Amino acid sequence: MPDAANFDDVDYPTYTTGQVARMLTVQQAFLRSLDAADIITPQRSPGGHRRYSRRQVTLIVRLREQLDEGHTLAAAVRITDLQDQLEQAHTEISRLRNQPRQ
After folding, report:
1. Which GO biological process categories is it annotated with (predicted)?
2. Does 40 reside within a domain?
3. What is the pLDDT of residue 7?
4. Which pTM was predicted?
């Protein structure tokens, strides 16, 4: 049983494959295929069962949206990666703009 300190941790491996599949209405095989392709690598429980974090579930949702738009899995991975890089760049630009000038 996880302790309360882990409840707010988006990287804590909380969800089983079955739970994620039900939440996202996807097949468990889809989730296993993401793991086999090294796209989403869930942690493993002591018994060897996959455990997904909230961050991973969010990424699966984003990938699924791209797939539903007709993109290939490779394109979906690239698009989400580029979106993340763009967000990081915007964050860095904002940080730099807010720094006092020397």
Report:
1. regulation of DNA-templated transcription
2. yes
3. 74
4. 0.85
